From TrEMBL:
It comes from Streptomyces palmae. It catalyses: Hydrolysis of terminal non-reducing N-acetyl-D-hexosamine residues in N-acetyl-beta-D-hexosaminides. This is beta-N-acetylhexosaminidase. Residues 43-383 form the Glycoside hydrolase family 3 N-terminal domain. The lineage of its organism: Bacteria, Bacillati, Actinomycetota, Actinomycetes, Kitasatosporales. It holds the Pfam family Glyco_hydro_3_C. Coiled coil: none annotated. PROSITE patterns: GLYCOSYL_HYDROL_F3. Its EC number is 3.2.1.52. Belongs to the glycosyl hydrolase 3 family. Residues 422-604 form the Glycoside hydrolase family 3 C-terminal domain.
Amino acid sequence: MLAATAAGAALAAGGPALGTAHAAAPDRRPDRERLRALIARMTLPEKIGQLFVMRVYGHSATDPDPADIEANRKEIGVRDAAELIATYHVGGIIYFAWAHNTRSPRQIAALSDGIQRAGLAQPTPLPLLVSTDQEHGIVARVGAPATLFPGAMALGAGGREADAREMARIAGRELAALGIRQNYAPVADVNVNPANPVIGVRSFGADPEAVSALVTAEVRGYQEGGVAATAKHFPGHGDTAVDSHLGLPLITHSREEWERLDAPPFKAAIAAGIDAVMTAHLLFPALDPVDDPATLSRPILTGVLRGELGFDGVVVTDSLGMAGVRKKYGDDRVPVLALKAGVDQLLNPPDLPAAWHGLRRAVESGEVPESRLDESILRILELKSRLGLFDEPYTRAGEVDRVVGSRSHLAAADRIADRTTTLLRNDRGLLPLSPRRHHDLLVVGVDPASPSGTGGPPTAVLARALGELGFTAEALSTSTGAQPDPAPERIAAAVAAARGRDAVIVATYNVGRTSAQRTLVAELAATGVPVVQLALRNPYDIAQLADSGLSAALAAYSWTDVEVRAAARVIAGRARPRGRLPVSVRRADAPDQVLYPLGYGLGY
């Protein structure tokens, strides 16, 4: 749109435009006085709502499916996104695939435009900040035909800052074309704990310096693509043994260890001009001895993040529906305490009416000064202004078809993926396989559900990719990601199918000490057929399989199509294994000993 919008009209007349269309401008300061004048005209309900970023069910802002209407009424008390905006004046909406927000590119763009129309139709017309978690790899809310890239640890294995920047620039451009202008990425956590149940391959790796470099590259890439980047999860979620979705993790690092291990990527992100920082729902006694998660900690958010690190951008909570932040306080009190700690955006409360009214009571009672709301709203409106949302809140006609999943973008994803697959073992030079010597292949193993709804089960994707490279490859699924351990009858079927083959490729997923996947691999190897193991998620699987009779082992860092296809090209010798471990792999039977060190990787 070139004409002035209702959002622009809500600002004081005259003066320069506040932003540039579809391009973040971190070096250009919005007109704070005009934004403050706009805030002064907002009612208290409008101010409270501006702090919330909320989920909503449905593919349309005004005409969702009946089941989504029912879900909205049950969880939020509204019919659709337009009613959510009119009732609670929310400042942002987060998209999820499970909320049926992301069916297709054109539908997503239409939903974004409908949300903006609803926001601009309010008494104080304001654009909304539409966001999502599009980390790539195992976390992707927008699926094909959008371009899907390798995830963070795969990029860590590739080790190229240029690849991380190109990936984020392309991903940002596609998100912006869909009307999604804030991405909750990159993950700035340093994954120093192999048992971490929630970060793992979502992290670039275990080396703070390398993670910092790749975080910086992605921050700049997303901003070049026109999307606000968000570094997460402050003060660092890399050394946890508890999933904060399910419980409250404890970080036992000393202050010195935090400075050395956890802080560098966040410092780098701030130096790169990061737009937002997401909090972590975890205890960090070295930074705040009070028994409250970092999301509710004023010493951590205001004292360390804002005071010591000098961050003056938007602080957003991780989802307020996670158990890690709900264990001690009610859903009506958590937003109040988060705001008092230094948070600006309150993300996805499980009970929006309780959260919204709880915050209003806190303001009306004087517990939270209205001026405190104004501080956060100013930061949020400045971000919207830098993104150009006051001038051009709507998607551009035709840009979705030109940009999303374009041929050049898909080629870039494959090119980047070819630099990530890591070869950990290759006894007697089994790999690369040759269609002349190893023509008849069996692909077996775990089939996690695709995080982006793309080409089907990973074993089928891998078999199909190998077929296109000249092999005969049959796929046989033995289990799922939800239940990765195969039943005895599935193991027996896989072993029977393996006999007489030229080679077997077995896909593994989070292999543990008692995992039946170990039995599967050992019994496949006992047939005498060469067995190639491909870790679909964490590269640590090989520690549990080192003595299982494997002939070769690779790490793909994800089961998404782009990484599985890249692994197929490596197996077939169409691409060289150029990835290097961004973490160390320790022995399963002696965790104090390193089996494969950080930086390890074979080639051919």
